[in-house]
Amino acid sequence: MSRTRSQARRCAVQALYQWQLTGEDVAEVAAQILEEKDSKKVDVSYFRGLLSGVVKQVDKMDALLAPALDRSVDSLDPVELAIMRMGVYELQYNLEVPYRVVINEAVELAKTFGADQGHKYVNGVLDKLALTLRSTECRKKRSSQ
Question: Does domain 3-136 have CATH number 1.10.940.10?
Answer without folding.
Answer: yes
